[in-house]
Amino acid sequence: MEIKMIYGYARCSTDETRQQIDRQVRELIDLGATKETIYLEYESGTKVDRVELGKLLKVVKEGDTIVTTEVSRITRSTKQLCEIIELAQVKHLKLVIGAFVVDCSKGELDPMTEGMLKMMGVFAEMERNMISQRVKSGMANAKAKGKQIGRPTTTSDDVPHIFLKHYPKYKTKEINVSEFARLCNMSRTTIYKYIKLVENKQG
Length: 203
Fold this sequence. Notes:
By secondary structure, the protein is of the alpha/beta class. The chain has eight helices and five strands.
């Protein structure tokens, strides 16, 4: 008899903390998944072609279960949620979203459960749109007040002392870029950026 698997899906946006996804993993284990069957994703919920979600949806077989902590983790798109519900019905899957169980093991989904799930999806998408609108409004307001948006520009005054200490050796060809990067404990990309800043100032 084929063993029915319980797969977990945890997602955080790239700007969220590691603790956030660790908390989800603990909750997914409580829901029956294991560390080996949990798929971790560091992407926005608005992104449709998420790699780990795609892998999960391909690997699940008839009778398996997908668990996630809340609907906004698996998607913030109502359209994609409908596609996942359809897949669950075709593959006879069970979806467990926190305490909410969506059982499609018989290939059908009762209208009340389907309606509730889609309502959750609508609210997740609406929340995402409201957050996006607030961010855009805040950025526009800050720009109007003359505040800098995004990361501050690095100037030659920001070049660290350790770089300046070893820079003469690089200029006299005592060391190459790789050795320079190792001495400064920096990436080659960062070294090149600082070289450009220093040489532009000198030029």
